[in-house]
Specification:
The complex is a heterodimer. Chain A is α/β, with parallel strands linked by helices. Chain A is built from 24 helices and 13 strands. In chain A, the strands form three sheets. A five-stranded mixed β-sheet of chain A has the order 5-11-10-13-12. In chain A, helix 12 packs across helix 13 and helix 12 packs across helix 14. By secondary structure, chain B is α/β, with parallel strands linked by helices. Chain B has four domains: about 80 residues, Ubiquitin-like (UB roll), CATH 3.10.20.740; about 260 residues, Rossmann fold, CATH 3.40.50; about 140 residues, Dimethylsulfoxide Reductase, domain 2 (3-Layer(aba) Sandwich), CATH 3.40.228.10; about 110 residues, Barwin-like endoglucanases, CATH 2.40.40.20. In chain B, the strands form nine sheets. In chain B, strands 15-14-27-26-25-16-17 form a seven-stranded mixed β-sheet. A six-stranded mixed barrel of chain B has the order 31-35-32-34-33-36. In chain B, strand 16, helix 8 and strand 17 form a beta-alpha-beta unit. The longest helix of chain B has 19 residues. Classes of the chains: A alpha/beta, B alpha/beta.
């Protein structure tokens, strides 16, 4: 059922999207339904299908894909505890157990009174303030982050707050330290630091840093005002090319070069800002949107000027509810000032920015999957070519850029190309927000120029190992998918080229430090749990292979590992990497591959200590018998083919013989 | 024409058209690349990763998916390296990982691409010692299709078919990652009319045929290439039989007719072939009861009675009803018997002489088709007049949808109901039965001189489209041209086609499987074989020479006239069931001195007969059938019931002719086919052998011209299209796919799909009369009444009551009885 009131709200949502593209509003519309019922009932899904003019199964398929859309009620408060690697390193598992004992339920269950449902979740973008959980208030659909839940007391305190009904007085993140009286008081931005002065994270700690007045007092929007009426789009693209900004989302593709791929004269064209920050170990875009949203908006205004787009979408991950509200407020402020809308700054430019909330799918960070999701489908990647710059959103030219990349644009245009290139290296210019998490004393965000040595980040800014007695034995330099670096590589400069040379990738600059208390088998298993959970399911190797690897790793953890497992896992990983539909496949096994290579003895000892007799079926890794591949199979052997064209057996391209 | 590029596959150069997908290029070069998701009739998706091959590129050799990669000139490809083999092995290992390997109980076993590819490319061993993933098994996604989610390899073929061809995405991927499954939306079974094609497309045993499940093993069945006769599209099918029973029907490719697709009625509704109640011996009424007799006794009785009746009342007291459901051979033999042996033109079939048809059907189905790889449709606008392909001709519906979605074809629909195809953009011209002529006249006027003040009206929009189009095809069905006003409507449509411009053409399509062949072979009261008028000198002399007799020149009675007339004394009914159509006809059949029925089952009509002769169906004897584009196609004998004494109709009439002193030279069906080739100029050369497995169209140029009737179309307008206080609603009737006919209803599994005995009103009309949907109501006309369940649907216009033909136990004929337009009222029961 969809009530008249819901219908009105849904209609307003659908109106945000271009005419004929109302299907794009499917996720926000489903949020409306879920808020009403606590889940998405099938009859409401069917009704939504009718409103959108699509088949009911298409709605059901979307609901099934996204983690945050439920097919059954999740309780008044839905608690999700992060247990992925960065949280795990700081006690995420214990935190989950604390919730379990405090609530008296196992994860995946609901308390008898229906008030609380508990789940574990793989990465919520809060790696610097682990362990943590998010809580969804079913009545309002609001989400609040509860962070630094180090002890069982902290967990109880959080639950008390929720029970008191004051848990959602603010949506800003909650920590036990900031709310000594249990009133629901909010904490400010999490730890930031780095070089002085800072640019990307300049005003986060100022009071009302998110307000347009604060931003403008710092000279905000002056750049946009100047550029929009003074610099031709083509010239601006050249400047961005010259600045050498490289994408901050993970792949590091030069932003200006990407813009240059847009075909001339094709309108409409779209800007999609990738704010679906989901790579474990990465939590930088969140803080920008929560505490300095206008920096991003100015960047979008500038970027849209350069690429001559009049419509931008910000695809923000669904869990970032507070960031979403802050962005919404900021957009309203900018609109009220005339910085968005028609004829911005008298330049004749128009721009409309639409916030679009995802619903819990890592894969939607991949650009084609993000566009597919934004169009209202399951977030599965699509074929390239055509590349989004040529045929992207709604098959129109589209640029997809990361939040931090766009913020860099603001600073390049404000301070100039030469200024920007003073930072970093020739091929990795500029500054960068490094996300430091795991076993260090001071996890947080550090803005530093590219090529800052890894050890400087970890030791100087991060304060070194969390526990002096337990040295760091491995570091993931660029988000969980990247290959591990070992202590001999800790001096590597943090720029794209140096990290690549060291055998890994800088990725999203999510730096995760792992100390020697940690089992690398568990790291591997957690990593694969994440990728199994987040695989979109489109292609075989990734869908099947990640789950297989997880099952093997779980078995090893449980003490039933076999000697052959390591070689088998390498075989599986080799046949996922580079064989899958999108880069997710590689990302899912790089960590494991490097882990098996560099920490093999840990895997061995786990197997030998727990299953010394190697008990289990003995099977060769590769078969003894292989069919003769030089022989034609019966499949296409004419002697087996029945007359009359058997299409069941033959999938041949047979032209009509008439 | 197409640019060619040269690529190197496994060190051998091949030249293929530019933009060909690598997987197809390899196939052209004779190199086998294993695939699951890739399919030559679906868009590439690249999800199974089975087809990875080595491609040399600027940055070294890479493993690329050959099913999504178009070839480029100079491309160097290797499919047989160690790396490729390793990946194939690993990928098959992935695919088999959670596959249940329940091949011994899987219908697909023995014809399963997964089995075959595992044999050829697989690892030969399983590495999995973890528990397998579990999912729903043998779970019905419709009355006809069973899904096994554990066997599914997620190739998306079924999803893509329903999306790309049916434009009904009723299956989708649900859940995510390793839990991804193919499923329907809860409570929404697949109901696309050609959904069964996804069973053929499935490369594993995930989708199986609920009707044929466990009824065969692929290595035991005999496969006979045949055609379907449920409607006039004439889809090519394959009949799979075992132990004298038809076990399964699958689609067979014919790029001129059905591509590779068939509809669900054609695929699943075949239980009647092996039904235990099939007539197996002749029956003769003795002491008021039908009694089993020998053929000799039955035939001698019929011959003797016919001779007597002809003696007493003259030859025109004897009539015969043929059928669009039986073969050219049988229909030809029937009309030859009537014309040459009895000496009358009283020969017709339902939708025969009472319908103002045109002789040549569609120009060609291929002009409307948009195959995956192939030219665009040759028409740019289609006007469907009184035709609902979704219910009447499902594969034509598929072609039309595809042409609209991918071929840029514009659609105009004129129909009393807002039929399913109206969901596509394009003018919808509503009319009430009886209002056809007025609508056609209006269209003609709008095309001639459009009045700008009426720009908003659909008629104007349609006229504008017709004027702009260069290759319009106007297609009308029997519903639009039944009865006295029919010729006027037909001529109006012809005028419309002329007015619309040079490229515009007009076609009539019949609905029954052999509707066209029935006309071609002369089962018409006013037409000789070849559809020549009775007084056509050439045709007469040709046939008189061939048959060795003189032919009557007085037109015979039409189907309706034969059944209405009191003067008929003897009637042959061959594969038709008029008794079920109307209570009055059922009564008038009782009055006959002699009723001979030839059929497959003891129909309502057969129950009234004096003699019932058991016929063989289309699967049991060789026969040819002519589809709606004049394609003559073969349906060879595929099954035989060794216990049955049923005979093909042509053989029955050959023997009957012999009893009455005429010796026909027919030794087998092929010899009848050969005589048709001599009797009908268009069929010259179309012998059994020449037709082959894909059939041949007869030359439209050989058909006689149709003379137009004098006067304007609107002269035939029936008064019943005008409102009437006592009977406020206009009755709309017509064909639905899943009706109550025996050919459909004997398939138990499909019972849930059958259209129930309902009358459907527009919600506004139902509300006005205070009637609740689901309640039992009485529909009354001046002719009679009928109790039905009320349904409401906005697709039904206001002022209309929609009651399909052939509903189980609810003959709409009770209301119309003779007239083709009728006013009714609907009341609480």
């Amino acid at each position: 059922m969809i009530t008249e009131q819901m219908r009105q709200e849904i209609d307003e949502i659908l109106a945000r999207y271009p005419a004929g593209r109302q299907r794009s509003g499917i996720l926000p519309a489903l949020y409306v339904i879920q808020r009403e019922y606590g889940y998405c009932p099938v009859n409401a899904q069917d009704k939504l299908a009718e409103i959108l003019g699509i088949a009911p199964a298409e709605v059901g398929a979307v609901v099934g894909f996204y983690n945050m859309l439920h097919e059954e009620p999740k309780g008044e408060y839905h608690i999700e505890v992060c247990t992925n690697v960065p949280c795990m390193l700081r006690g995420g598992n214990q935190c989950l157990h604390n919730f379990e004992s405090a609530l008296g339920i196992h994860h995946g269950e609901k308390t008898e009174d229906g008030r609380f449902a508990l789940d574990h979740m793989e990465c919520l973008g809060s790696c610097g303030t682990a362990p943590m959980a998010i809580v969804t208030d079913q009545k309002t659909g609001q989400i609040r982050y509860f962070e630094n839940l180090d002890s069982s007391e902290d967990v109880e305190k959080a639950l008390e707050l929720l029970k008191s009904g004051n848990g959602f007085h603010s949506l800003e993140r909650w920590t036990p330290e900031a709310d000594p009286n249990g009133e629901g008081a909010s904490d400010g931005p999490y730890r930031t630091g780095g070089m002085e002065p800072r640019y990307l994270m300049d005003r986060l700690n100022e009071p009302d840093s998110h307000r347009i007045e604060t931003y403008e007092a710092d000279g905000g929007y002056a750049t946009a005002r100047r550029v929009l009426s003074g610099i031709e789009p083509a010239d601006m693209v050249e400047q961005i090319k010259a600045s050498g900004i490289r994408g901050r989302g993970g792949a590091g593709f030069p932003t200006g070069v990407k813009w240059g791929f847009l075909p001339q004269g094709v309108q409409p064209r779209y800007m999609v800002v990738n704010a679906d920050e989901s790579e474990p170990g990465t939590f930088k875009d969140r803080i920008v949107m929560e505490y300095d949203p206008h920096q991003l908006i100015e960047g979008i205004i500038l970027s849209c000027h350069a690429i001559e787009s009049e419509k931008a979408f910000i695809y923000i991950r669904g869990e970032y509810y507070f960031a979403y509200t802050r962005m919404q407020d900021a957009l309203a402020e900018a609109r009220a000032k005339g910085y968005l809308g028609e004829n911005i700054f008298g330049s004749g430019n128009s721009l409309d920015i639409v916030m679009h909330r995802g619903a819990g799918a890592y894969e939607c960070g991949e650009e084609t999957a993000q566009l597919t999701s934004l169009e209202g489908f399951r977030g599965q990647p699509r074929l390239k070519p055509p590349f989004p710059a040529v045929e992207g959103l709604y098959a129109k030219p589209t640029i997809v850029n990361n939040v931090e990349s766009i913020c860099n644009v603001t600073h390049v245009m404000r301070h100039g190309v030469d200024w920007y290139k003073e930072y970093g290296t020739e091929r990795s210019p500029g500054m960068r927000i490094f996300c430091l998490s795991g076993n260090v004393k001071r996890p947080g965000l550090y803005e530093l120029p590219h090529a800052t040595p890894l050890s400087e980040l970890v030791d100087k800014y991060g304060g070194g190992p969390q526990d002096e007695n337990h040295p760091i034995k491995a570091i993931v330099p660029g988000g969980l998918s990247m290959k591990l670096l070992t202590p001999d590589q800790f001096d590597t400069p943090l720029d794209f080229e140096s990290i690549t040379e060291a055998g890994s990738l800088l990725g999203s600059a999510g730096v995760i430090a792992i100390d020697d208390r940690t089992s690398m088998v568990e790291v591997a298993r957690r990593t694969l749990s994440f990728y199994r959970e987040e695989s979109c399911g489109k292609c075989t190797p990734c869908r099947e292979g990640t789950a297989w690897l997880e099952k093997i790793l779980l078995r090893i953890e449980e003490g039933q590992g076999l000697g052959r497992d390591l070689e088998l896992m390498e075989f599986i990983a080799d046949n996922i990497a580079g064989k899958s539909f999108c880069p997710f496949g590689e990302a899912s096994v790089w960590g494991l591959q490097s882990n098996l290579l560099k920490f093999r003895p840990e895997f061995w000892s786990q197997i030998e200590n727990t299953n010394p007799d190697d008990i289990g079926p003995v099977l060769p890794i590769r078969p003894d018998y292989r069919p003769n591949t030089h022989e034609k199979s019966g499949l296409r052997d004419s002697t087996f083919a029945p007359t009359g064209g058997n299409i069941v057996l033959h999938d041949d391209l047979v032209p009509g013989n008439d | 024409m197409t640019d060619k590029v040269t690529i190197t596959i496994n060190e051998e150069e091949v030249s293929v058209p530019a933009r060909t997908l690598l997987v197809d290029a390899a196939r052209m070069a004779g190199v086998e690349i294993p695939v699951f998701c890739s399919h030559p009739k679906l868009d590439p998706v690249g999800c199974c990763r089975m087809c990875l091959v080595e491609v040399d590129g600027p940055r070294g050799t890479a493993m690329m998916a050959s099913c999504t990669m178009p070839v480029g000139d100079g491309m160097v490809v290797r499919t047989d390296t160690e790396q490729v083999r390793t990946v194939q092995e690993a990928n098959l290992a992935f695919i088999l990982l959670n596959h249940p390997l329940d091949c011994p109980i899987c219908d697909k076993g023995g014809e399963c691409p997964l089995q075959d590819q595992t044999m050829r490319f697989g690892p030969g061993i399983s590495q999995l010692i973890e528990p397998k993933r579990l999912a729903k098994k043998h779970y019905d996604i419709s009355d006809t299709i069973v899904l096994d989610q554990e066997r599914c390899v997620l190739c998306w073929r079924c999803i893509r078919y329903l999306e790309e061809w049916e434009d009904k995405p009723q299956l989708g991927l649900f859940e995510r990652g390793n839990d991804t499954i193919v499923d329907i939306q809860d409570g929404r079974p697949v109901d696309a009319k050609t959904s069964g094609n996804i069973i053929d497309l499935c490369p594993v045993g995930a989708l199986t045929n609920r009707v044929s499940r466990f009824a065969y093993r692929p290595w035991e069945i005999e496969r006979t290439p045949s055609i379907c006769l449920h409607c006039s599209v004439g889809c090519n099918v394959r009949l799979d039989s075992r132990t004298h029973q038809l076990r399964r029907i699958v689609g067979r490719e014919n790029m001129q007719v059905n591509d590779q697709w068939i509809c669900d009625k054609g695929r699943f509704a075949h239980a009647w072939v092996n039904d235990e109640n099939r007539l197996a011996t002749p029956h003769l009424r003795k002491n008021g009861r039908l009694t089993r007799v020998q053929w000799s006794e039955a035939l001698a009785y019929v011959a003797e009675r016919l001779a007597g009746i002809r003696e007493k009342y003259g030859p025109d007291s004897i009539g015969a009803i043929g059928s669009g459901k039986i073969s050219n051979e049988s229909n030809y033999a029937l009309q030859r018997f009537m014309r040459a042996v009895i000496g009358t033109n009283n020969i017709d079939h339902r939708d025969g002489g009472d319908v103002a048809a045109l002789p040549t059907g569609l120009p060609a189905l291929s002009e409307l088709m948009k195959p995956q790889y192939g030219p665009d449709p040759q028409v740019d606008t289609v006007l469907l007049f009184g035709l609902d392909p979704s219910e009447e001709l499902p594969v034509l519906d598929l072609h039309v949808k595809r042409a609209v979605l991918r071929g840029g074809v514009k659609l105009i629909i004129a129909h009393p109901r807002k039929i399913e195809l109206t969901r596509y953009d394009g003018p919808y011209l509503a009319y009430l039965p009886g209002g056809e002529s007025t609508l056609v006249d209006g269209l003609v006027r709008a095309v001639q001189d459009s009045d700008p003040s009426e720009e908003e009206s659909p008629v104007y929009a349609a006229a504008k489209l017709l004027k702009e189009s260069e290759r319009t095809l106007i297609v009308y069905g029997p519903m639009a041209v039944r009865g006295e006003s029919g010729p006027g409507v037909r001529d109006g449509l012809a005028r419309l086609a002329r007015t619309a411009g040079e490229g515009a053409r007009l076609s009539y399509v019949g609905l029954d499987g052999n509707a066209q062949g029935c006309r071609d072979t002369g089962v018409l009261p006013d037409r000789l074989p070849g559809q020549f008028p009775l007084d056509d000198v050439d045709a007469r002399s040709r046939l008189e020479a061939l048959w060795g007799c003189d032919l009557s020149t007085s037109p015979g009675y039409t189907y309706k006239q034969m059944l209405d007339s009191q003067e008929m004394k003897a009637l042959f009914v061959n594969g038709a069931n008029p008794a079920a159509e109307s209570p009055d006809w059922a009564a008038s059949l009782e009055e006959l001195e002699l009723l001979v029925v030839t059929d497959l089952l003891l129909t309502e009509t057969a129950q009234k007969a004096d003699v019932v002769l058991p016929a063989q169906g289309w699967a049991e004897s060789d026969g040819t059938y002519t589809n709606l584009e004049r394609r003559v196609q073969r349906a060879p004998k595929a099954v035989t019931d060794p216990k049955s004494r049923a005979a093909p109709d042509w053989m029955i009439f050959t023997h009957l002719a012999k009893q009455m002193g005429a010796n026909w030279p027919f030794s087998d069906a092929h010899s009848v086919t050969a005589e048709i080739a001599r009797a009908v100029p268009g069929y010259a050369e179309l012998t059994w052998e020449a037709l082959g497995d894909q059939g041949r169209q007869w030359d439209a140029g050989s058909a006689p011209e149709v003379e137009e009737t004098a006067g304007r179309a609107s002269e035939g307008t029936s008064e019943s299209s005008v409102g009437d206080g006592d009977y406020p609603l206009s009755l709309v009737t017509g064909t639905v796919l899943y009706d109550g006919g025996t050919l459909f209803s004997l398939t138990d599994q499909m019972h849930g799909m059958a259209h129930g005995p309902t009358v459907t009103l527009n919600p506004a009309d139902a509300a006005e009369s205070g009637l609740e949907p689901g309640s039992v109501v009485t529909v009354r006309s001046e002719q009679g009444e009928l109790d039905l369940t009320l349904a409401i649907d906005v697709q039904v216009q206001t002022g209309c009551a929609w009651i399909p033909e052939s509903l189980p136990g609810a003959p709409v004929g009770a209301l119309i009885n003779g007239s083709f337009t009728q006013r009714v009222k609907v009341e609480r029961h």
